[in-house]
Specification:
Elements: H1 7-18, H2 22-44, H3 47-63, H4 74-93, H5 105-109, H6 116-120, H7 123-134, H8 138-149, H9 154-161, H10 165-188
Length: 195
Amino acid sequence: MKGRTNDARIAEWVRNAQDGDQEAFARLVEALAPRVYALAMRYLGHAMEAEDVVQETFLRAYANLWTVDPKRPFWPWLATIAIRLCIDHLRRRRKAVALEDLTYMGAWMASHEPTPEEAALSEERIHRIRHLVLQLPPRERAVVVLHYWEGMDLRTVAEVLGWSTSAVKSLLYRARKHIEQAWNREERLPRSTEA
């Protein structure tokens, strides 16, 4: 994706940060904080909680940087921390996302560069799809966000979430079915017309 720092530079900063270079870690934060924020917004749909997740993610990353395998990409490791924090935030909420939380969708929509597919969709359709994703159960939502919006393959999603690939496939199938059914229900609802 255009605008993202390349993996070689990220790997170099990780190695330097592991050796105690504070500036290298600051570069990691600067380069990846927007991506963590976008991930959290897609999952949580709430700007303040997403900002909290960004801060907590990098605090945990710093504390556990020594566990990073230099032979593996850094982003899935960091995304694992972020998505688990998102799940914790949802558990603390102990309720589904309320309709008033959807006012934060504008910030969410502005939080990332659209893919070619998203650019082809109308703003209304994008809003509807994202609204439906926010209504998914947490496990299904995690799979959708990581696979479709973060572009991770199913094996990587399984590694990030600590689930089997077959569980991820099953959750993705159910998520698509839920979204399709909800979309079709909305299509059948009569449209209000203003006189």
